[in-house]
Specification:
This protein is mostly helical. The chain has one domain (about 5-220): Four Helix Bundle (Hemerythrin (Met), subunit A), CATH 1.20.120.1630. About 65% of the residues lie in helices and about 0% in strands. It has nine helices and no strands. It has helices at about 5-30, 35-60, 60-70, 80-105, 110-135, 165-170, 175-180, 190-210, 215-220. The protein is globular.
Length: about 230
C-alpha cells in the first residue's frame, strides 16, 4: 500500500477541521446553547462516520479523496450545476441550522427515542455512501469525466444508477428528527427536488460523454429507488 502523499493528508486534515467547525456553528449558534443533547449525539454520529470513511479512503483510494475535495458550486464547470449545487447547499444548511432555533424556542417535541433511532438512519446513510465509494473510485463531488473513467455497474450500481443520491435519501430526512425538530422537515422536499434536478442533468451529461452509459441505463432501469423510480 502506497504512503499517503503529505500534501493530500494536509488538505484532508484541514478540510475535516473546517467540517467540524462549520457543523458546530450550524448546530449550536442557532440554539444559542450547548445544552442540546440531540446536536451532540448527531455531531458524534456524523463526524465519526465521516472520519471512518475518510480514513479508509486515504489508505485505499487517495485519488478519490482528491476528487472529493473539489466540491461546492464554485467547483462545478457547468452553469446548471452551479445553480443546483447552490440551492442544494442552501437547503442542506437550513436542514442543519433550523433545528437549533426549534430547540431554542421549543417549537417541536420529538420523543428522545425517535431522535436516537433517526441517528441510526443517519449512520446507515453514511454506510451506504461508503459502499458507493468502495465500488466507484470515480465518484467525484462534481459532475465530470476523469481520465480512464468507465461505467460502474456492480455493487449498489446494480440496483440503481445513482446510489449516492439513494444514500442521501436515507440520511437527509432523518437529520431534522435526529436533531429534535419536526419543522425542519419542511426543508427536505426542496432539497430532494434539487437532488432530482442534479440527477437528471447528470444523466444527460454522462449519456453524451461517458461511453457505455446508455447501455448501462438499459441494463439498470431504476435511477434512485429500486422498483419505483
Amino acid at each position: 500500500m502506497a504512503p499517503i502523499p503529505p500534501n493530500l493528508l494536509r488538505k484532508t486534515t484541514l478540510g475535516f477541521a473546517k467540517l467540524i467547525v462549520l457543523l458546530a456553528l450550524l448546530l449550536f449558534v442557532p440554539a444559542w446553547s450547548l445544552d442540546f443533547w440531540q446536536a451532540w449525539l448527531f455531531a458524534l454520529v456524523y463526524i465519526a462516520s465521516a472520519l471512518l470513511i475518510t480514513a479508509y479512503l486515504l489508505k485505499r483510494d487517495p485519488d478519490l479523496i482528491e476528487r472529493r475535495l473539489r466540491t461546492g458550486p464554485s467547483a462545478e464547470k457547468r452553469r446548471s450545476q452551479k445553480i443546483v449545487q447552490t440551492l442544494a447547499y442552501v437547503f442542506f444548511v437550513l436542514l442543519l441550522a433550523f433545528p437549533g432555533l426549534d430547540h431554542r424556542f421549543h417549537w417541536s417535541s420529538v420523543p428522545p427515542l425517535l431522535s436516537i433511532a433517526s441517528d441510526l438512519f443517519v449512520a446507515l446513510g453514511f454506510y451506504l455512501v461508503f459502499l458507493v465509494f468502495r465500488e466507484n473510485s470515480f465518484a467525484s463531488a462534481t459532475i465530470e469525466i476523469s481520465p480512464g473513467q468507465k461505467v460502474v455497474s456492480t455493487g449498489p450500481y446494480r440496483l440503481v444508477r445513482h446510489p449516492m443520491y439513494s444514500a442521501a435519501l436515507v440520511l437527509l430526512p432523518f437529520i431534522p428528527l435526529a436533531l429534535g425538530s419536526y419543522w425542519a422537515l419542511l426543508f427536505f422536499p426542496p432539497l430532494f427536488a434539487a437532488i432530482v434536478w442534479r440527477l437528471l442533468d447528470e444523466e444527460t451529461f454522462l449519456s453524451k460523454n461517458l461511453p457505455g452509459y446508455d447501455d448501462y441505463r438499459l441494463q439498470t432501469r431504476y435511477r434512485l429507488i429500486p422498483s419505483l423510480w
